[in-house]
Amino acid sequence: MAQVTGIGGAFLRVKDPDALYAWYEQHLGLAHPKGCFVFSHETQRGNIAVSFFSKESKYFPVSQPAMLNFQVDDLDGVLDKLVAAGVSVDPKREDYSYGRFGWFTDPEGNRVELWQPRP
């Protein structure tokens, strides 16, 4: 069934990502061995990642301060449903060893990322 199965991450623009990672590690004990905080839970198919992006990053629109990332069980199925509903969906898909990614734009104009983790 094509549906969202959890949150895949939160991405924030900050002035100094390295300094903010260090602050969170110092004050909250959050390690960042892969350039992001990774939280796992048995009910999710993949980990939840929190990453900091530089203010100039082009990964999502510079005018957008944050981007949501939702885990899905069927990336193409979810995106097909969004297209059928008239939602603006980016035709680009990306495949990595850790999963597949696609994007859509919500009614507020926010670019949202979908992630289908690898089994």
Automatic annotation (TrEMBL):
<dbReference type="InterPro" id="IPR037523">
    <property type="entry name" value="VOC_core"/>
</dbReference>
<dbReference type="InterPro" id="IPR029068">
    <property type="entry name" value="Glyas_Bleomycin-R_OHBP_Dase"/>
</dbReference>
<dbReference type="GO" id="GO:0016829">
    <property type="term" value="F:lyase activity"/>
</dbReference>
<dbReference type="Pfam" id="PF00903">
    <property type="entry name" value="Glyoxalase"/>
</dbReference>
<keyword id="KW-0456">Lyase</keyword>
<dbReference type="InterPro" id="IPR052164">
    <property type="entry name" value="Anthracycline_SecMetBiosynth"/>
</dbReference>
<protein>
    <submittedName>
        <fullName>Putative enzyme related to lactoylglutathione lyase</fullName>
    </submittedName>
</protein>
<dbReference type="InterPro" id="IPR004360">
    <property type="entry name" value="Glyas_Fos-R_dOase_dom"/>
</dbReference>
<feature type="domain" description="VOC">
    <location>
        <begin position="6"/>
        <end position="117"/>
    </location>
</feature>
